[in-house]
Design goal:
The protein is α+β, with helices and mostly antiparallel strands. It has three domains: 40 residues; 258 residues, Periplasmic binding protein-like II (D-Maltodextrin-Binding Protein, domain 2, 3-Layer(aba) Sandwich), CATH 3.40.190.10; 229 residues, Roll (Dipeptide-binding Protein, domain 3). The chain contains 18 helices and 23 strands. Strands 12, 13, 14, 15, 19, 20, 21 and 22 form an eight-stranded mixed sheet that branches. It has a four-stranded mixed sheet with strand order 2-11-10-9. α13 links the parallel β19 and β20. The longest helix has 29 residues. The chain is globular, with a radius of gyration of 34 Å.
Length: 580
Amino acid sequence: MTDSPVPHERATRLRSWLTRSIRVRGLDSVSRSIRTLSSGDRLIFYVLSALLAVTSIAGLYALEQSLLVRVPAYGGSLVEGEVGSPRFINPLLAITDADRDLAKLTYAGLMGVNGNGVLVPVLAQSYTVSPDGKTYTFILKKNASFSDGTPVTAEDVVFTVEKAQDPGLKSPEYANWAGVSVRAVNSRTVVFTLTKPYAPFLSETTLGILPAHLWQNISDEEFPFSNLETNPVGAGPFRVTNVSRDASGLITGVTVSENPHYVLGRPYLAGIRFQFYEETDQVVNALANGTVESAYGVSNGPDTLTAPYARVFGIFFNPNDTQVFAQQPVREALSIAIDRENIVKNVLGGFATAIMGPVPPGSSVKQAPVASSTDPTAAAARILETAGWQYDGNARVWKNGSNTLDSITIRTSNVPELKSVASAVRTDWEKLGISVTIELYEPGDLSQNVIRPRKYGALLYGMVIGRNQDLYAFWDSQERNDPGLNIAMYANKTVDALLEDERSNPDPAARAADLQKIEDTIAADYPAAFIYAPDFTYTIPASLQGVELPQITTPSDRFANVAHWYLKTDAVWPFFAAYR
């Protein structure tokens, strides 16, 4: 009697029998049919089959691609050209645009500004404001850390603010923090106390925070010379990884790379390389020949982005120096005589907005309407004549009793843009029968010897308005004398009250209403012939995506949402795109 096979042997034999027995009859039939074809027909069959396979695969790929969405991907770098050279990559000492640009990229504050110009928490998890508007309490995020991996604490915030308040350091931030007390409640809670309510205070907390453990033992005298000035450790989206210098030690290039510890997440760009030049023309040439890919302050075709600058330029009248400017009709006529649209189009290349009031474009304020006339000269003459002025064509002088208006001296800075604008204004005023002289000063000389002592009758100048739209220093009557910035020597009790309420009222809607009244009242008084607000221009490569420009106060504001800029993309299914 033969032994029966064991179970696993039976299974093996069964699989073998099935393999030999099962045939795909369709395939066998096709195979037999192919064998009956001639060699030429078989070739054609194989070619057609290959084409069918390729077409099917391509169709499936196209279908897949039509369903996928493109999302930002990590990687890629940008090369940017800039005029100047950094010295202090430090939010407390930054004095040049190059300083501020690199400080913006490498440091972070409790708050920041997004691409829409809205204040958002960065290092802060949350904040509260006391009912009286004088106490601000911030809670730091648990994962907030510097680029060296050490945590950002309330002690770092206290150190930074107290250092800004240190008169021995001479920080440009000193005025912003004077009178503000700061204390750490615990490692993650910091409290600011103001002497009186100041609604725009929140914008001051965008100040970049320094790591106390690296700076606390460095004296005021040593501060500007520390190696940390050009090799900073901050909590921003990038960190400095390379610095190039010329033979004299001047910085010619800086590379910043992604900071993996950035609290808002890893930036998409792997890095940005800054190349520094002495002149704007050099930047323009570098952009044209591809040495650099991006630059601000220059335009290069359709890839140039624009944003409103928080600046207003105009001719400010000083009635203390030239008595005739105390008369509102004279100021109004001189303002109306200026052809703003011509200046914007032909002098500024279209990169500006004509204005008639003190608030720059880009806010919620409705701009005072720009005077529109086919003949500004005639419109200005009618204003003077209605006020009792008569023009003596032989003497080329306007007269009103003992008052005369025959010549004006415009003083301004010796820079190409303002020289050209002053020339255009001279042309417009001379059409009105007034002789105009232009005096040019180097910027430092203009500030020290003309503006501070108020030695001008008509000053062509620009006011840099902060994002908080606080106009107090420029228009309050108490700011008429140096170091105040009320260069029009303007005094209006109604405006004084509005300025005070606008900076202290905690209600945003009420502050906006105050600002609108300030715009309308000052525009109607003509203390200055407001002319234009320049546009900020930023040329970038077509491949760079995700760039959003808020209203620009300083050029470094272009980096408001730099962590979201990207050069590379991935194709993913919609579900994963939503997740990302």
